[in-house]
Design a protein that fits this description.
With 265 residues, the protein is of the alpha+beta class. The protein is 27% helix and 20% strand. The chain is built from seven helices and eight strands. Strands 1, 2, 3, 4, 5, 6, 7 and 8 form an eight-stranded antiparallel sheet that branches. The longest helix has 17 residues. It is globular, with a radius of gyration of 17 Å.
Amino acid sequence: MRTIARILLVLLVLVGGAGLLGPTALATPSIDDATASKLDELLAVRQAAGALTKGEVINQLSAHFLGTPYGANMLVGSATVPEELVVDLRRVDCFTLLDYVEALSRSTTRDDFLTNLTETRYTNATVDFLHRKHFFTDWATTSRTAAEDITATLTPAAITVPKHLNTKSDGTAYLPGLPAVDRNITYIPANAVNDAVISQLRTGDYIAAYADQPGLDVSHVGIFISTPTGPIFRNATSLSAYQVVDTPLTDYVATTPGLIVLRPH
């Protein structure tokens, strides 16, 4: 079981230390040469994928991130620093990996990518702290939704828990200035993630480790990939590998309280 310290660290990575400034106009972000080259490479992969299924497109795109170094606090914004639309493919955390892959899966040009990244990362494509999708389940509940939460459909063993997201057990906020969000979170306990559940997963599903702490929905996120040698959890890890890796899904599930599954549109 993960410690609260670990979960707090992951939350800080997800939000990137963002602050409380109001909406900022979408400006073309600064993109370094390495990121520009990688972005063009990935857009070419997407174009070549043509009419492949969304899941296979996600598989092909995310495979090009394998070995990419892990980077914490990747996003920019604070109480005194304006929120920025960050595009940095030199390193990723677990959530920005999903941001980039989801946006790329719907893009064929740089302009497409910037638009889709904004819609993926921010509610109503509004680039500011309050609109940033801080929680994994935001992807299935706030506009533009990127996925559908299918967790409850996978097994009758799924459990639904009412959560006050962003509220600690003592009533204080994880992120001051961000309102609490009341949301029912459904997860599958780790001991119920059996062959029958795994057989219903599809390559490209976005999966996450349920957080059994007050105020949080998940502690880590990644992508499900079906391979000839077994199911894989593709993720940007801050553990020993410190990069994007493929981890056997069953090994990973055993370290978590359970899973949440979102299926991309």
